[in-house]
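User: Can you model how thiamine diphosphate sits in this protein?
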Amino acid sequence: MNMSNTLLAQHVNPNLFNSDVETAPNRNGYGNGLKEAGELDERVVALSADLVGSTKTNIFAEAFPQRFIQVGIGEQSLASVASGMAAMGKIPFIASYAMFSPGRSWEQVRTTIAYNGSNVKIIGAHSGISVGPDGATHQAIEDIAIMRVIPRMVVIAPCDVHEAERATLAIAKYVGPVYMRLARENTPVITTIGSPFEIGKADIYLTRDKAHKKTVGIISTGTVTYQALVAGRTLNEKGIGASVMHMATIKPLDKAAVLAFAQEHDVIVTVEEHQRMGGLGSSVSEYLSEVFPKKILRMGVDDVFGQSGTPEELLAHYKIDNASIVEGAQKFLQ
Amino acid sequence: MHYLTDEDVRSLELKANEIRQSVIEMLVEAGSGHTAGPLGMADIFTLLYFEILRHNPKDPFWEDRDRLILSNGHICPILYAVMAHSGYFPVSELLTLRKFGSRLQGHPHKETLPGIETSSGPLGSGVSQAVGMALAERINNPYSSKYFYCLTGDGELDCGQIWEAMMLGGKEKLHNLIVIVDRNGIQIDGYTKDVMPLEPLREKFESFNWDVQEVDGHNIRSINDAIGKAQAVYSQPSIIIAHTIPSKGIDVFERDFRWHGNPPGLGPEDFVKKSEQAAVALKKLRTLNGYINTHEYE
Ligand SMILES: Cc1ncc(C[n+]2csc(CCOP(=O)(O)OP(=O)(O)O)c2C)c(N)n1
Ligand SMILES: [Mg+2]
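Assistant: Here's the modeled complex, given as structure tokens:
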């Protein structure tokens, strides 16, 4: 076991930093989790808008054809149909690409789901810049912001396939509106099958090397937590004590964890596949600015649209890859 | 519209075939993208860009040009291919499709590529934009002879916004607006009749006060005639339901909804192995589905 592995939390995949680390798209975890949720609770129903396969809702649809509704390409209606079903006692999961749901259906989500207190789970697949070659029209990098600002809405971005599965089961049990964003690509498996998951709980996946004097606390969400972890390892190797906290639940924010993390590190760096405005970084900044003002570097897309490219090219270009995080943290500490 | 001689029709068909080959080469090089829609719409796009549209590829911002709004942005490989072949940009640039830094974005971006009238990809908003353009033109110049062509998918008709715009177009009697629907019977999750039945479609459009025609989307002469008639309608906007075959031109890919969003090399393997899909596709096109003999291309 190499040195950096000793910094990893127990429930993190010990193979994480090896080149043969297992990978899977986290939407698979949602697909399997939804089927399990359907087995556990017959009130669970699923709806999709002509994206059953790519959102992995097909696993549930095949197991429970009676409890699956294909609404056609109509995301605004999708949100409100789900609200109607919730009013009749169902627990609807609606799945599409994040750009279209909740991207297109924002007002329907706000009024007919959140304002009604409807127990609807909105699954936004293919979120973030790593959607890649499809280009800017399909890269949802504003979704956290537009969902986070709606009262009552819980916002979750799992880091990998296992966490997505556990999160799906958890949100099926939770009563109230939830938005969960997923990624398209195969990404490294960060957690293990038995890792804990609780809505609203942050988790420290990598703890800094206590020998180093300068310290940085990295807070990340979604599948780029992998980039944050690799950056954290590199920083520790370079003599900077870097810890990485994964924030699976962006809202409600785990305030206690954020405060403690801020108190323990010289600076905070946030990382997300999202605009720098309005997402995780903003949430952390809003909170800390009131209780523990702190230097915070928000890494994300800087107020521009995305473009076509491979996920790797785009993560590097928009400075959300591990090399950019290392560079950003080093400069920020100076 | 003009009268097409038999030679004109023949040369447009051959041009469409050449353009289909470009589409295949682009998709193969990109390693992702949509096959069925672009191939199915190749005849219509070739006719539009080489016969119908009043445009100037060397001056894409020419004020008096007709406007072509691609609402179903995912079929942009066919738009890029006809644009290159008609002189907007070098044909060699087609191979940059979907790559980092390319003007040929995975879904069209108005600002990066002159000649693209609007950005699209998210479905359902093209007819509204075409209605908006036609309304503005009526204010600018009540005697305008510009036409506004809007292309949509048939799955795309599931989108409520399409019908909001149809209602407005009918109300405003936008006679210079011509919508062409790619009625290929497929969408992502399956056949349109299973995902969301659209029929009776003609009657739906008629009840929204549009002039409706149906046409074989691979018969150059019929499409040409239908567009000519649509141009002549003066009291209503027009819609042409173009019956097309998804993946037209490559019989082993045709009519299968699973070719909606896969490039050759990643498509269903019922008839052709993934590793051979690209070569088979190009050969099918070059030999007109084996109808003519050509020397072996490998
Ligand atoms: C608003 C919106 N929802 C979903 C999608 C994903 N999507 C892309 S193409 C497509 C199917 C469109 O069907 P159709 O218009 O018939 O196109 P075809 O498959 O025939 O090319 C879907 C659902 C989208 N692009 N936009
Ligand atoms: Mg179709």
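A couple of observations from the model: Chain B has ten helices and five strands. Residues 6-30 of chain B form the longest helix (25 residues).
User: Helpful, thanks.
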